[in-house]
Structures are given as structure tokens and as C-alpha cells.
Design a protein that fits this description.
The complex is a heterodimer of chains A (354) and B (339).
Chain A: H1 5-23, H2 27-43, E1 50-53, E2 56-59, H3 60-67, H4 69-83, H5 91-109, H6 113-137, H7 142-161, E3 166-167, H8 173-183, E4 185-186, E5 189-190, H9 191-208, H10 212-221, H11 223-228, H12 233-259, E6 261-262, H13 271-281, H14 293-312, H15 321-335, H16 337-353
Antiparallel strand pairs in A: 1-2, 3-6, 4-5
Chain B: H1 2-7, H2 13-32, H3 39-64, H4 72-88, H5 93-117, H6 122-140, E1 145-146, H7 150-159, E2 162-165, E3 168-170, H8 172-190, H9 192-202, H10 204-209, H11 214-240, E4 242-243, H12 251-261, H13 273-293, H14 299-321, H15 327-338
Antiparallel strand pairs in B: 1-4, 2-3
The chains are: A mainly alpha (354), B mainly alpha (339).
């Protein structure tokens, strides 16, 4: 596969031209990610060390991919919901519900793994549909409508587990199978990565290769125009929230399988905020109308890299929220036209002085 | 437009519904349990929910102004650890309290500045604020810290409490809650600032056309809410006689739930702090009822609160449908702001 230098050059240029529209909108989150990685390259020893053990890859970078997978899964659904001009605060609670129901069904009712997983995903789909009905058909404000499930969902999860933390018991085949979701390996990479990639591919196919993506953006952009052009905004909303519920369910199963227990209190706690942050960092506008799936993925990776960097530099996990907060505010400010004009004014004043 | 909407009797319907639920829950409790109909239950209701009440009053003003404040729980936690740490360093509790409340108000002002001047979504700014102040609280003191100063353990807990005999006493924090409630009612209903809050939340474009200082109103509202949240932190520190940077996770949701149950519209422009106080008491009553019942698990509280919030939101939603459609005026307003 050795090519002549000139040929390499032109094919490189062709590849660049191909991926340029993909990269262009992601330039800011990618730059931030590159900056963070550069910092680690210079100051954190062994950050980029990746080794192969028993055919599986291990290392900090792989850990970032692995631990970032739950937020990436949540961010997939959240991107679509935010693109319709809404938001889903209940994803963390739905994660807890999904994990709790799957583990409880196996532990107390000795269901098989596929049946338990299907039941948990069904429950999270119903949770998403509930949000979809409230937002789409009853026209409640998304923050409020999903707040209800955010508050009540954790209660339901605790109801399912009867208030206790259920750990995976050894020797139960269904649990061993469920463990694969969070701890298994596929093609040398942790299995959650495969899940994320396939869900991303599925979502991208559904939204970008069919008209669904256009519908979602239309609803977020102008609901009335969307209605007048014969599209039912209620149905589009309903479906996006249902899809987000499903994504949250998968994330909940991965999270439960990762720590080998179902913890109704802490599973997915505050992850809705991380997911929203990932989506916003990735360049999806909060008031809806356009979305970037790849951007959200980069955003989720950025957040996870930030968290991992802090752990590796021995910064207390309690202080971890501070840089996250600064990132949120900085990204918001960069997107604000008022801020841009005021900064531009300062620069112009300096030019005038010169 | 604005005075007409407010003179509709409909503005009181939601408040009446809240009051009805409160009375219904109380009567249900009295009928089901022998010792429910006592002064102790009522007084404890105020004592145990005073800090939630103070925080919810701040949240009400923000929501009436059309925004939302997600930083409440973190500010309460950070304030409680700040005051505990200041007292631990030998400062008099009153001075420490003043510093804490000023710090809270300053933090609120900062959030308000970002929201009002750069037109950032309040939801995101206060989300960032929530992370930031939570981390800041941990940087003051990573663990919970007890308060042993005699002014707190004697004067505030005992001497300033209103004793009703038989060991029943309305704590000083409950009195503080009622005082803040009165101040907020005065601010919202009797001052120009209060009317501006309603106007900004009801319809920002017309408020601007009326020449109201929208940015100033917004910033002051968040400053007031920040002060309320840190006062709630002070009340929490007095109530538990300690400060804890890890406490009150998810507390903002309780506050918002109280506001919603109290009949304040989350769209902004409509609502009463009295309703919020009733909402806080309803949340407290649910907890008391479940505690009295004994065999019900505490997570039923979350489900009950979720169900109540849903009912109230649906009720408000149906009621706001009765108003004439505002579409025609909305488009002209957009044109005016653009032009």
C-alpha cells in the first residue's frame, strides 16, 4: 500500500476536502480537546501510554473512552431533544430506573439477561414516552415536564430495588452476561465504546439519511411553520423524548454493569447536567433548530478528559465541578452575540488608540 | 395589558387550589392519626422546613421574573460551611452571618450580570453556578464542621425561640422564614422593584417599551435570590448546628417544586410568595404524613411530590389556556424589538 509522494499528497488533500465540512463546525470543541491533550502530553506522565493485555487495550485514553460512554449515550438523545428546543432533565433518573429494574428482575425473579435487558429498555422507553406525551401533546414546558420524572423517577427506582443497593451475585449466568455490557471487550476496545459507536451510527443514519433530522430541526426552528407545512410537531417531539428515554436506559444498563450493582440513589446522579453540557459544548444551540451529533460526542469526550486529567493530577474529586462550571460559562459567553460585540468593541477601541 | 391580566380573578384560582390541598392534607392527617392535630406538629412543620422556605422564596422571585435558579442547593451548602468555618475561626456568629449573606448576594449578582447583560440562558448560567459554588464550598472545608459557639447553641436555639410550653417551641429559623416571607411580600407587591419583576417576567418586550430597567431588575432579582439562598444556608447551619459542603444535593428541585405547587407559573409573570410558603408546608406535610404512617418508605415522598407537581402544572396549564391567544400581539412585538 505504498503510494508515490505526490499521489499521497493529493489523496490527503481529497480526504481533507471530504472531512472538512465535518470538522469545520467542530473546530472549537476539538481545539479545546487538543489543548487539554497537549497539556497532558507535556505535564502528565504516562497519559498517552496504551498497552495490550490479553488482546485488550488498556490505558488512560481507553479509560476516557470507556468512562465517557454513559455521557456520550445520554448526549445522543439529549442532542435531538435540545434540537427540538426542549431539554430532558430526567435522563439520570431514567438511568437509575433502568439499572434498578434489570438487576432486580435478575436477582429476585431470576430472569434471563436478554429478557431483563429488554424489560429495562422497555421501561425506559415508556419513561421517555411519558415525557414525550407531557411535552408534545400536553404542551408543558420541557424543563418542568421532565422535572416531574426527575423527582419521581428516583423514587420509582428505589421502589423497584426496595431501597437497597443490589449487587451482582457471583455464579448467576444472567449477571455474568450483564457484566459484559459494561466490562466486556470487543475488538480490543471496551464494549461500551462499541455500543456508543453503533448507537451513534444508528442515530446519524436515522437523522441524516432520512428526513427525520430535518423534521427535528424544523420543529426546533419554527413550530408554526412546521405545523403549516403538514408536519405534526407533537409526534416529532414525542418520538425524540422516547428515543432519549431509550438512550438513557442503555446508559443506565452500562453504568449498573460497570460498577456491578444497582444503586437507585446515585446511579446517573447529575449526569443529565453533564449530557446537556456535552451537547452545548458540541455546538448545538440551546434554543433549538440545529444539531451536531459528532459535536456532542466531542463535548462528552472533552468533559471526561477534563475529569480524568483532574483525577490524574490528584485534584480532589470534590473540586472537580469548578472547572466544569468555568467551561459552561465560557462556552455560553462565546455563543452570546452580546458578549462577542462587546469584546469586538474593546478590540476596536485599542485599534483606534493605535 | 398587564393590569387587565392581573385583575382577572383567575390569578387567585391556583392559590385557592394550593390552600385547598394544604387544608385537605392537614385534615386527612388529623382524621387518620390521633396525635396529628397538635400544636407540636404545626410548629415542627415550620421548624423543619424553614430553610427550604427561605430558599424557595428566593426561587419564587427569580421564577416570577421569567428565569430559573438551579444553584440554590449548592449555595445553601456553601453558605452553611462558610459560616461554620468563619465561626470556627473565632468570628462572632452575627458578623459571620452578615458576611455569608453578602457573599451570597454577590454571587447572585454575578449570575444576574451574566444572564441580564450577555443574555445567557438562566438555566445554563445557574447550572454553572451550581457546579462552581459546590466546588467552592468543598475548598473552604472538605468535611462537615460543627458549630459550638454559645451564641448559636444558646441564644439562637433557646433564647430566641418562641416557647409554647410543653417543650414546643417555634425556632428562631422559623421566625426568620416568616420574616423573610413578609419582606418578600412587601418587596413584590408594594414596591416599584416588585412590580418591575412581574412586568419583566410577564412580557419582557412590553416591559422594555414601558421604559423599565430590565437589566437592573434581573440583576437585583438574582442578587435577592442569592441572599435568600445563603440565608437558607445560615438557617440550615443553625438548625443542624453544623456546616456541610456536601448537603442539600437536589435541594433546588424541592424549592422549585414548592414554587410550582404554590401556584407560580414557570413561564414567569404570575405568582405569589404566599403560595410558595403554602407549597413548602405541603411538602413538609407530605413528609410528616409519611413519617406518621411509619410503614411507608420515604421514597414515596419523591413520587408524591412528583405527582403533585404534575397535577398543579396541568391545572395551571388548563387555566392559562382560557386567556385570549397572544399570537397576533406576539408577532408585532417581535417586529418592534427588531425595528
Amino acid at each position: 500500500m505504498r503510494a508515490e509522494p505526490t499521489q499521497t499528497f493529493t489523496s490527503l488533500g481529497r480526504i481533507l476536502a471530504l472531512i472538512q465540512p465535518l470538522i469545520q463546525p467542530l473546530i472549537w470543541p476539538l481545539a479545546a480537546l487538543a489543548l487539554l491533550l497537549l497539556f497532558n502530553l507535556l505535564f502528565t506522565p504516562n497519559f498517552f501510554a496504551v498497552e495490550m493485555r490479553d488482546g485488550h487495550l488498556y490505558g488512560t485514553l481507553i479509560d476516557i473512552l470507556n468512562h465517557g460512554s454513559t455521557v456520550m449515550l445520554l448526549a445522543l438523545g439529549m442532542t435531538l431533544v435540545i434540537a427540538t428546543g426542549g431539554v430532558d432533565l430526567s435522563v439520570g433518573a431514567v438511568m437509575a430506573m433502568a439499572g434498578a429494574s434489570a438487576v432486580q428482575l435478575i436477582a429476585a425473579h431470576s430472569w434471563s439477561m436478554p429478557a431483563a435487558v429488554a424489560a429495562a429498555l422497555g421501561l425506559s422507553l415508556i419513561a421517555g414516552m411519558w415525557n414525550g406525551i407531557l411535552v408534545g401533546y400536553l404542551k408543558l414546558q420541557p424543563i418542568v415536564a421532565t422535572l416531574i420524572l426527575m423527582v419521581a423517577g428516583r423514587g420509582i427506582a428505589q421502589l423497584i430495588t426496595d431501597g437497597s443497593i443490589i449487587t451482582f451475585s457471583d455464579g448467576v449466568t444472567a449477571f455474568t452476561a450483564l457484566e459484559f455490557l459494561g466490562n466486556g471487550h470487543f475488538l480490543g476496545l471496551p464494549f461500551p465504546v462499541t455500543l456508543v459507536v453503533s448507537m451513534l451510527a444508528l442515530t446519524a443514519l436515522l437523522t441524516r439519511r432520512t428526513a427525520v433530522g430535518l423534521f427535528i430541526e424544523a420543529v426546533g426552528d419554527n413550530e408554526q411553520a412546521c405545523h403549516l407545512s403538514g408536519l405534526d410537531p407533537r409526534l416529532v417531539r414525542f418520538l425524540t423524548y422516547a428515543f432519549t428515554g431509550l438512550c438513557a436506559g442503555i446508559a443506565g444498563l452500562v453504568a449498573a454493569s460497570n460498577i456491578k450493582c444497582a444503586d437507585a440513589n446515585h446511579a446517573g446522579l447529575f449526569l443529565e447536567l453533564d449530557a446537556i453540557l456535552a451537547v452545548v459544548v458540541g455546538g448545538t444551540a440551546l434554543n433549538g433548530g440545529r444539531f451536531r451529533l459528532l459535536g456532542s460526542m466531542v463535548g462528552a469526550l472533552l468533559i471526561q478528559t477534563l475529569t480524568t486529567t483532574m483525577y490524574m493530577r490528584n485534584i480532589s474529586s470534590d473540586l472537580a465541578p469548578i472547572p466544569k462550571a468555568l467551561v459552561i460559562i465560557a462556552v455560553c459567553l462565546l455563543q452570546s452575540p452580546e458578549f462577542r460585540t462587546s469584546v469586538a468593541r474593546i478590540f476596536r477601541r485599542q485599534e483606534a488608540r493605535l | 395589558m398587564m393590569p387587565v391580566r392581573f385583575s382577572l380573578p383567575g390569578r387567585y384560582v391556583s392559590l385557592a387550589a394550593t390552600l385547598a390541598v394544604l387544608i385537605l392534607l392537614y385534615v386527612a392527617g388529623c382524621l387518620s392519626f390521633d396525635r396529628f392535630a397538635s400544636v407540636r406538629v404545626v410548629v415542627n412543620l415550620f421548624n423543619d422546613n424553614s430553610f427550604l422556605g427561605i430558599a424557595a422564596i428566593g426561587a419564587t422571585t427569580v421564577i416570577i421574573s421569567g428565569g430559573i435558579d438551579l444553584s440554590v442547593g449548592s449555595v445553601v451548602a456553601a453558605s452553611s460551611i462558610l459560616i461554620a468555618s468563619l465561626i470556627g475561626h473565632g468570628m462572632h456568629p452575627l458578623v459571620a452571618m452578615a458576611i455569608t449573606v453578602v457573599a451570597g448576594a454577590l454571587f447572585g449578582t454575578l449570575q444576574g450580570l451574566l444572564i441580564a447583560c450577555y443574555r445567557l440562558p438562566s438555566f445554563l448560567v445557574t447550572l454553572g453556578g451550581m457546579f462552581f459554588i459546590r466546588g467552592l464550598g468543598f475548598s473552604i472545608e472538605p468535611q462537615s464542621l460543627g458549630i459550638t459557639h454559645p451564641f448559636v447553641s444558646e441564644t439562637l436555639i433557646n433564647d430566641l425561640a418562641l416557647h409554647f410550653g410543653k417543650g414546643v417551641a417555634l425556632s428562631s429559623t422559623a421566625s426568620l422564614f416568616l420574616l423573610i416571607l413578609l419582606i418578600a411580600m412587601y418587596l413584590l407587591h408594594q414596591t416599584r422593584f416588585g412590580r418591575s419583576i412581574y412586568a419583566v417576567g410577564g412580557d419582557e418586550a412590553s416591559a422594555r417599551l414601558m421604559g423599565l430597567a430590565i437589566e437592573r431588575t434581573r440583576i437585583l432579582t438574582y442578587a435577592f435570590a442569592g441572599a435568600c439562598s445563603s440565608l437558607a444556608g445560615v438557617a440550615y447551619a443553625v438548625y443542624t448546628q453544623s456546616g456541610d459542603p456536601a448537603c442539600c444535593v437536589g435541594f433546588e428541585l424541592d424549592a422549585i417544586a414548592a414554587v410550582v405547587i404554590g401556584g407560580t407559573l414557570l413561564k414567569g409573570g404570575v405568582g405569589f410568595v404566599v403560595g410558595t410558603a403554602m407549597g413548602v408546608l405541603i411538602l413538609g406535610l407530605i413528609q410528616t404524613l409519611i413519617a406518621f404512617k411509619g410503614d411507608l418508605n420515604s421514597w414515596w415522598t419523591r413520587i408524591a411530590i412528583g405527582a403533585l407537581v404534575l397535577i398543579f402544572i396541568l391545572l395551571q396549564d388548563r387555566m392559562s389556556r382560557f386567556r385570549p391567544p397572544a399570537n397576533a400581539t406576539a408577532t408585532t412585538k417581535v417586529k418592534v424589538t427588531v425595528g
